[in-house]
Design a protein that fits this description.
It is built from 7 helices and 5 strands, in the order βαβααβααβαβα. The protein is an alpha/beta fold. This is AAA family ATPase.
Length: about 170
């Protein structure tokens, strides 16, 4: 079973995935953060604040590879739908075939949570941009036929418990 955790930037997704990994579950880290680390390592320029289109294309390629490599119960921090939103935002074509063929079994959405939103070296955009992106991502998942389950604004432990209980139902 492939479980997508998407939603608002700064909404606690990565921390939640860390908790699920701590509990022994297979997780796939957010492509965006991995791409930024790789670009820093190789002195590249496919950063979202330098070349957003190149960044979006890399995010899609990485999301496809992540999907193809996963086995069994796996939790993903963003994926092909998220990357497609970034591609469209940079003037590219929506990769409808990829969205249709790389599906996730369940979708959990982290809603905006301004009280915990912080910028860091990799998250340079404003909360306002995060909110606009959140709406586009949420709408893209719904348009792709997903039925999102909104995560509660609660402790990371409670959120992980919520996901695991929902999957058992």
């Amino acid at each position: 079973m492939f479980v997508m955790i998407s939603g608002c930037s700064g909404g606690g997704k990565s921390t939640l995935l860390e908790e699920l990994a701590r509990r022994g579950h297979a997780v796939v880290a957010e492509p965006g953060r991995r791409i930024i680390a790789e670009e820093r390592e190789r002195n590249g320029d496919a950063f979202p604040w330098v070349d957003a289109a190149a960044f979006a294309r890399r995010a899609l390629a990485m999301s496809i590879a992540d999907h193809e490599a996963a086995r069994g119960l796996t939790f993903f921090d963003r994926g092909v739908v998220d990357a497609s939103v970034a591609i469209v935002a940079t003037g590219g074509q929506r990769p409808a075939h990829i969205i249709a063929t790389r599906r996730y079994d369940r979708l959990f959405i982290a809603p905006p949570w301004p009280e915990i939103y912080v910028n860091d070296a990799d998250r340079r955009h404003s909360l306002e941009k995060a909110l606009r992106d959140y709406e586009r991502v949420r709408d893209a998942y719904v348009d792709a036929g997903y039925d999102p389950v909104i995560l509660p604004r609660d402790t990371v432990t409670a959120r992980a418990d919520f996901i695991l209980a929902t999957l058992r139902d």
